[in-house]
């Protein structure tokens, strides 16, 4: 069973798309990506200011959904939403 953790709504899709937290194998870092339009942000400040967003194809070889333990040590943790989706 896999969980998707979200930190808010996509600035493009609004309430239609949620930003889910990804774990990137390269650099062992977390980023967020809209589950609908694939808009991605690397850092919290970029997301809050809606800058430096980009789109790339979600490749399982380079990233996967982050676990709660991985998110807990990142800047995204305080922004986690209550509802998480079970895939
Ligand atoms: Zn979106």
Compact overview of the structure:
The protein is mainly β and 87 residues long. The chain has 2 helices and 8 strands. The strands form 2 sheets. Strands 2, 3, 4, 5, 6 and 7 form a 6-stranded antiparallel beta sheet that branches.
Report on the structure:
This protein has 87 residues and is mainly beta. The protein has one domain (3-86). The chain is 13% helix and 39% strand. It is built from 2 helices and 8 strands. The protein has helices at residues 44-49, 68-72, and strands spanning 3-4, 6-10, 14-24, 29-34, 39-41, 54-55, 63-65, 85-86. Strands 2, 3, 4, 5, 6 and 7 form a 6-stranded antiparallel sheet that branches. It is globular. The N and C termini lie close together (7 Å). Zinc ion binds next to loops.
Strand fraction:
35-45%
User: What structural category do the secondary elements indicate?
Assistant: mainly beta
In N-to-C order, the SSE pattern is: EEEEEHEEHE
Could you tell me which ligands this complex binds, including any ions or cofactors?
zinc ion
Q: What is the end-to-end distance?
A: 7 Å
Strand count: 8
Residue stretches low in confidence (pLDDT < 50, at least 5 long) are none
Instruction: Using the CA coordinates, give the radius of gyration.
Output: 12 Å
Shape: globular
| Helicity level | 10-25%
Kindly list the characteristics that best describe this protein.
single chain; about 90 residues; mainly beta; 6-stranded antiparallel sheet; two-stranded antiparallel ribbon; 2 helices; 8 strands; about 40% strand; globular; binds zinc ion
């Amino acid at each position: 069973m896999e969980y998707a953790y979200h930190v808010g709504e996509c600035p493009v899709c609004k309430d239609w798309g949620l930003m889910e937290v990804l774990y990137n194998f390269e650099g062992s870092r977390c980023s967020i990506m809209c589950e609908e339009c694939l808009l991605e942000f690397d850092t919290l400040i970029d997301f809050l200011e809606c800058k430096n967003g980009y789109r790339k194809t979600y490749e399982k070889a380079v990233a996967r959904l982050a676990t709660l333990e991985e998110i807990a040590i990142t800047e995204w943790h305080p922004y986690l939403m209550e509802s998480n989706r079970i895939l």
